[in-house]
């Protein structure tokens, strides 16, 4: 009970009275941030003229209380009396640093901002595309340099990347492909059964996985696993000035960082894509055996009849190109990091989005191209 | 309302404890270890109210760990930590809230929130603990805190990435001071600053400490800081506080590390500088 009564005294409060024709505001309690409660609003609501502010009831004051008093004194042009807790000094201290400070950067009107943002996005896309092309050129130059000086080829770095990009991805890509194979076979068989042509499920699974899905799903998975990792690794290295240190020692970051990663993805993509296609076909075969009663032997035999060998080439030709795009997008975005840790996250996201987008755009071009050359 | 009273009752009790004995922080029998490595063992330390206590020690003697133990970021294996008479060990975050409002911490790198402007950074603790403070008053408070810590007015709307090292420290100090704390923790505030900037920062710390009646727990490597602003110095060595006192008192001990620290080439230079300063004033 004692505490509570002590507290009631402490909460800041004000009383307004008129003494000998002069308005006096009597403040009491504790003028500190914890006890102010609604006092600032109540002080703001007071209209002048006020002659004095009486502080004789105030036991304690911090700079926030002093600031509230300072602005009230300034607004009402009054003086203070009854100071017993060094209030004048505190008010003078905060008063000496009273000057307008912007809290946030200036805001533009909305329409201007929208137009500005659109313009910025267009310019950004343009510069990113140009930058990516330039980066591709830089990689080619680095490749040429390494071809001319084979001693500078970093075999260890490349092999290490093989493991990270390829071998470690086998499990997840295998599982994903197996499930995709099952889904395609299952959905296909449901539709084809209506025409009594369940056997065509084998055509569907075989041709679709070799031509498109195997490589495409692998590309998406590699972009998510390795493209993002490249962007984050290189971005962090840029932040910690490792890349700059490399340059000063005379090691080209393009040769030491970008080339091994690109090479690893380019080599691994066809292998992973082929592996993914095979596992997807096994998945499709598994579903055919379980739900369509097509024995595996028949499945494989039929597969050999309906899947032309150029379907395999279509997939294998696309794979390294997708690999180049994924590696370049990841490394390029990583090398663009300049300011802070937050940018690493943004760049990593951008790397994955760009890689997947470009892969799908290019896949469309490839589809048109292969139709044109007659590989239907 | 009932809860508010409860919290305020808590605050009142703390207030009383501070009034009655002059100790702001008391650490008893502290033990900290990371795996096999024991950092502190039987460490005792008292920080008096209203003093600037410098904490020194070689690298790896656990200066920052001691600070983290006091402010509750690190749970010690054993020992007692009291801040304003309240035990800080094993307290829930909610319970320790009343105390947390009463300290400010400046981390080594400033630890400013990178997505907020300097002014918005300062507003975070106010917004968090005192939602009753209106947005306009909050902006004004942030503004005068910025100027009070010696930052130019233009620094307000800037993001931390746009600031120099010294300005980041000042912005961190402004945020630490946002709630007008009684207790200020500074972790190597002058590290990485140029000598002029470091001296200005020391000066600012001293001035703020006197104006606001702060108790300052200051971890430093900077001998000039020790000589110019610290009331007492605590030396961390051999897993505990081996000595506490004014620099003169420390010089009178014959602990080898202390002797080497203050009487090494840098220590002598700082001593000479202080002597020159005193002569000038005379």
Could you explain the architecture of this structure?
The complex is a heterodimer of chains A (376) and B (282). With 376 residues, chain A is α/β, with parallel strands linked by helices. Chain A is built from 13 helices and four strands. In chain A, helix 6 (155-166) runs parallel beside helix 10 (253-291), helix 7 (170-193) packs antiparallel against helix 8 (200-239) and helix 8 (200-239) packs parallel to helix 12. Chain B has two domains: 2-102 and 181-281, P-loop containing nucleotide triphosphate hydrolases (Rossmann fold, 3-Layer(aba) Sandwich), CATH 3.40.50.300; 108-180, no CATH class. In chain B, strand 9 (232-237) and strand 10 form a beta hairpin. Chain B is of the alpha/beta class. Chain B has helices at residues 2-20, 63-70, 97-100, 118-129, 135-148, 165-176, 195-212, 223-229, 247-252, 256-263, 265-281; strands spanning 23-34, 37-48, 52-57, 78-83, 86-87, 103-106, 183-187, 215-219, 232-237, 240-245. In chain B, the strands form two sheets. Chain B has a six-stranded mixed sheet with strand order 6-7-8-3-9-10, with helices on both faces.
Strand content range of chain B: 15-25%
What is the averaged pLDDT score of chain A? 89
Oligomer: heterodimer
User: Could you give me the name of the CATH homologous superfamily of the largest domain in chain B?
Assistant: P-loop containing nucleotide triphosphate hydrolases
Please outline the helices and strands.
The complex is a heterodimer of chains A (376) and B (282).
Chain A: H1 2-10, E1 13-19, E2 22-31, H2 39-45, E3 52-61, H3 63-76, E4 79-81, H4 87-96, H5 110-148, H6 155-166, H7 170-193, H8 200-239, H9 242-249, H10 253-291, H11 296-306, H12 309-335, H13 341-372
Parallel strand pairs in A: 2-3, 3-4
Antiparallel strand pairs in A: 1-2
Helix pairs in contact in A: 3-4, 5-10, 6-10, 7-8, 7-10, 8-10, 8-11, 8-12, 8-13, 10-12, 12-13
Chain B: H1 2-20, E1 23-34, E2 37-48, E3 52-57, H2 63-70, E4 78-83, E5 86-87, H3 97-100, E6 103-106, H4 118-129, H5 135-148, H6 165-176, E7 183-187, H7 195-212, E8 215-219, H8 223-229, E9 232-237, E10 240-245, H9 247-252, H10 256-263, H11 265-281
Parallel strand pairs in B: 3-8, 3-9, 6-7, 7-8
Antiparallel strand pairs in B: 1-2, 1-4, 4-5, 9-10
